[in-house]
Design a protein that fits this description.
Layout: H1 3-31, H2 41-47, H3 51-73, H4 76-82, H5 85-98, H6 104-126, H7 136-147
Helix pairs in contact: 1-3, 1-5, 3-7, 5-6
């Protein structure tokens, strides 16, 4: 097996999972704020002092760094589609943690996304040279743009 599948795929899956968890943590922190206290910069300033919201922000930053690493060892053609798993994690945990409703169409979408990721992993197992990892210049540009 090649590095893209052995290292890049699991790193991408973890990154996507963290991307799915981060906004839920932040939503939980935001929902703890008193209703009617306003939105916008005032809310952001209050949330920036809340440890739970900051944990969500740190989780998001960690997932970004993992994505950058995944792009350094696996082709973007593998990493980018697998990052869609963040939506699955978000959807399933939003249902459980925030009581959000998932329609039949939503469940179908979750199933199709999982199937797509499995098919990609299978395709990369048999065709190792679908693309190449990003070079240092590309990774640096991605990191800088992500921080802006």
């Amino acid at each position: 097996m090649n590095t893209a599948l052995v290292v890049g795929l699991p790193t991408t899956v973890v990154s996507a999972a963290l991307y799915g968890v981060a906004p839920l943590i932040q939503a939980m922190a935001a929902r703890r704020e008193e209703a009617g206290t306003g939105l916008g910069l005032g809310l952001l300033a209050r949330l920036a002092t809340r440890p739970l919201w900051l944990v969500g922000l740190a989780v998001e930053a960690g997932s970004f760094l993992l994505e950058v690493y995944a792009l350094s060892v696996a082709p973007v053609a593998l990493v980018a589609p697998v990052m869609a798993l963040d939506m699955i994690v978000f959807t399933l945990l939003a249902r459980r943690l925030l009581g959000e409703h998932i329609s039949r169409g939503g469940w179908s979408g979750v199933g199709l996304m999982v199937a797509g990721v499995v098919l990609l992993a299978y395709a990369f197992h048999h065709h190792a040279e679908v693309g190449s990892p990003a070079g240092n210049d590309v990774l640096l540009a991605f990191l800088v743009l992500g921080l802006i």
